[in-house]
Specification:
mainly beta, 12-stranded antiparallel sheet, 22 strands
Length: about 270
């Protein structure tokens, strides 16, 4: 059992008590974790400066999280995590009618994450999946007209997989794939020049990297790879309704890396670098 707390007594926003409690239990190859935390955030000077009234309420955040993990043999692990985040009086930047900060009543998300790992002499493999949905979101700037389960600029689901396969003592092949589910964002304007929120297709990025150790001489490493091999692209979607269209990220990239590890030998009070 781990217990902590913080007490704030702010000259302008009053007092706040922020406890944190963690319960951890290990049963043979199973581990369990339950966490609760409460946080207090006072408005910053710039939040107040750009508010309409010159006054804002502090944010109060509560997080409940539960994790369970299991060790399968000595080489594999499976972990699952669920969480619930609630924010009262969130301080939000709004671009509708002027760039100002304002309090909204509440926001929050509920979600879960799972991860599988295996590591052996041949290398390793990690696969994880994450999903969330908006819960009691009352922030207009974050809302998606098509569904109450999403917020602007963030995919509800994501899948990541990355691995490393050793070939002898010299070479390793390192592939990775990242799937980002559908998002929502402003992609066009209507006849009155107002932004229109539309669904944005999922994005898949595949990377491949080759690593060669002790090339020609000991401690010399050469790596070569390509990021976003199939040129799936990346998009940076504005996470509030500010009228900005998604910004494209970098596409396919090639990289070559050469590194050498020097040996440091201690000779009494001096060092010799070889």
């Amino acid at each position: 059992i781990t217990v902590g707390a913080r007490y704030d007594n702010h000259s302008r926003f009053g007092s706040a008590f922020s406890p944190r409690v963690g319960l951890n239990k290990t049963i043979d190859k199973l581990h369990l974790k339950l966490l609760y935390s409460r946080a207090f955030r006072a408005p910053s000077i710039e939040n107040l400066n750009y508010s309409e009234t010159g006054d804002l309420d502090p944010e109060i955040t509560e997080v409940i999280e539960f994790e369970a993990g299991y060790l399968i043999g000595s080489k594999m692990t499976v972990v699952a995590n669920v969480y619930n985040i609630k924010i009262e009086n969130p301080i939000i930047f709004t671009a509708d009618g002027g760039d100002v900060y304002a309090n909204f009543s509440r926001a929050g998300t509920v979600g879960f994450e799972t991860e599988y790992k295996i590591k052996d002499k041949w290398g390793y493999l990690t696969l994880n999946y994450a999903y969330y949905y908006a819960n009691n979101n009352e922030v207009d700037e974050y809302k998606v007209p098509q569904t109450k389960k999403s917020v602007l600029g963030h995919a509800n689901s994501r899948v990541n997989a990355f691995a490393s396969f050793r070939i002898g003592n010299i070479m390793s092949i390192n592939p990775s794939i990242y799937y980002t589910g559908k998002q929502y964002g402003a992609t066009e304007v209507d006849a009155l020049d107002n932004p229109v929120i539309n669904e944005i297709d999922p994005i898949v990025n595949f990377n491949l990297y080759l690593n060669f150790n002790n090339v020609l001489t000991e401690n010399l490493t050469i790596g070569a790879g390509v990021f976003d091999l199939f040129d799936g692209g990346r998009l940076f979607v504005q996470p509030y309704n500010g009228g900005m269209f998604p910004m494209p990220g970098s596409g396919r990239e090639f990289v070559i890396k050469i590194s050498y590890d020097f040996k440091v030998i201690s000779l009494g009070s001096s060092l010799l670098i070889i």
